[in-house]
Amino acid sequence: MPNPLEFGITIVDEEGKVERFLEKPTWGQVFSDTVNTGIYVMEPEVFDYVEADVPVDWSGDVFPQLMKEGKPVYGYVAEGYWEDVGTHESYVKAQADVLEGKVDVDIDGFEISPGVWVAEGAEVHPDAVLRGPLYIGDYAKVEAGAEIREHTVVGSNVVVKSGAFLHKAVVHDNVYVGPHSNLRGCVVGKNTDIMRAARIEDGAVIGDECLIGEESIVQGNVRVYPFKTIEAGAFVNTSVIWESRGQAHLFGARGVSGILNVEITPELAVRLAGAYATTLKKGSTVTTARDHSRGARALKRAVISALQASAIDVRDLENVPLPVARQQTARGSAGGIMIRTTPGVPDSVDIMFFDGQGADLSQGSQRKLDRVFARQEYRRAFPGEIGDLHFPASVFDSYTGSLLRNVDITGIAESGLKVVVDASNGSAGLVLPSLLGKLGVDSLTINPGLDESRPTETADMRRSGLVRLGEIVASSGAAFGVRFDPVGERLSLVDEKGRIIEDDRALLVMLDLIAAERRSGRVALPVTTTRIAEQVAAYHGTQVEWTTTSPDDLTRVGSEEGTIFGGDGRGGFIVPEFSSVYDGTAAFVRLIGLVARTQLTLSQIDARIPRAHVLKRDLATPWAVKGLVMRRVVEAAGDRFVDTTDGVRVVETDGRWVMVLPDPAEAVTHLWAEGPDDASAQALLDEWAAVVDSAGR
């Protein structure tokens, strides 16, 4: 060994007899570079030199005594490869030496290019970057855009997401490596989850079954012991041995969200449902529902079992649109649970909890559920108290009947309107047949069937779907076209010319139509909406009540007497006479009635509304400085008007405004700015982005 300080050094004669031996010398004591590897073959009488019940060291006690007595002690000088892997450095070095071919080892896999070994069943995307020598274990999955560099070992069933970077990293089995994460010279134990943009630096060791939160940093030479959680955005520069730096909140913007079978597992679903049941009285009824994905179906079964085992009766709606689940929950249930694929993220799911009105749980109810879940104080039913499970009949007829009784549909049957409806191969298509027939409108429905492989859609998929819808509307001479999201919660519009009405513009169109018809009342809009909405509302004698960006707040105002409309500018519309939550189908029925009675086209309505110039930007912000960022924003506002309805909105004297809002679930700060034109809004964004960036550095 070039550096023998960590070992026992020896000198042997030509016959192999040990002449000198010294355990762990200093450089001043080194007399040889031949070391004792600790592989021994001994005669039984050697144990005569080992005293009972007394700590005895072979190389420190026994061998020196044997040599002192002249006993035959021999050494074999091996010429093969040998490395003591008792330290992180030597363990990583041994992995690299195997990959470099310095060790005579049969690597179990196929050498698909020089030094790049891939085991059976592994799935490596052609657009992944592989720079060997490296090894990818059986049934691992490496996505496009991932980069794996030399001396990296990826274990069995490991998932490496797009944008991840691994160099000299040893990753054990069943690890999830999130998008844009960065692993260098580290070791990661089995069953650990490394979330988006996390960074693990050279010399760090992560134990088994840990969770490394998104955008967290584990510095070099830090040890994170097994079963620990590093919270999102944490900066860890000391070893985590006893404490668990856990996540502060269970709930995010869409309920409890995470990657299917990584963050959201059947075990977690059972515990969540048990905690939720514990917050309700025994014998209460909970309504359950799901979207058309396989993951949601599997998790819902786990949820139902946990609810029944906690003395809760379950009404299972199976696969229904999200608004139907909310409406049915409000019909006699103490609450509800809906499981759906996270919008735009096919490998993630949301577990959504409703109150007795079908709305999302309030902040207080979320905290109560959080506490029960954290303490794991779940209520369990006695055998005679196990809850019932039943499947209500005629759910869609009940929903559409209630909708048509509460929303004004006068003039539709006589109007002769023709509309094109895109169900997006989602659950909205389940309710349309009974609805369209009763409306008496001439309609063409496209993409009506369920597609399990597409439980959600990306922005590009949605855009291309709208373009296709526009082509059909224009060629068929329809009055307009609507496109539902896959769970029927949100709605997108296309005018009679086939042109897409952007979501923020569609909000103004709906606002103009409803305000013109009602001539009084209150409109609920989030503070990020263009102030042109105030002009439109005031022109027709209505007023805007500004809410936070939280759907809970919009729902609260939507349920109050005197509210005639609500929307979020992202395709979510509230029709208060029917429901206080987002409902794409209700918005569709309301829109048909409005167009039928006004005899105006959507393009005519759009043309009479001034153009808005609202721009948005997202900036990465470490969790540790989010509070500092907001303080700096308030300080920079000076004597300008500051609105703190949600985040901080700074209003200039000329009416331009910028809003800075920290994201509650991610290490991101959102900025919105509005001006008389895009250039002025852009300048305002640039100015305040610099304020946020300076505080974040």
TrEMBL record:
Residue span(s) of domain Alpha-D-phosphohexomutase alpha/beta/alpha: 250-377, 398-498, 506-606
Key words of the record: Phosphoprotein
SUPFAM superfamilies the UniProt entry points to: Nucleotide-diphospho-sugar transferases, Phosphoglucomutase, C-terminal domain, Phosphoglucomutase, first 3 domains, Trimeric LpxA-like enzymes
Keyword ATP-binding: no
Residue span(s) of domain Nucleotidyl transferase: 3-100
Top-rank taxon, per record: Bacteria
Mannose-1-phosphate guanyltransferase C-terminal domain boundaries: 131-233
Keyword Phosphoprotein attached: yes
PANTHER family: SUGAR-1-PHOSPHATE GUANYL TRANSFERASE (PTHR22572)
Family membership noted in the UniProt record: Belongs to the phosphohexose mutase family.
Protein name, entry field: Mannose-1-phosphate guanyltransferase
